[in-house]
Amino acid sequence: MRAITCSTALGETEWTWESFPPLGRDGPFAIQANDFLDAMEGKPDLMATLEEGIQAVKFNLACFEAWRSGARVKIG
User: Mind listing the pLDDT tens digit for each residue in 41-63?
Assistant: First the structure.
């Protein structure tokens, strides 16, 4: 599996590729269970706010558009 890491650094012209190992069948359940247990212990909630989620979607869409067009895309 491959993933693109987008960067906002000026002058950067190359995509950075990172490899991630497969999560496995039980991986998503284990992550969810650990988050639940952390919440039960009163640890801070790591969920993003709605505004952070919207900004993340805008960023991802800009990355795809930049990849598709080959041009820098401004997020506004």
Answer: 998 877 778 888 899 999 999 99
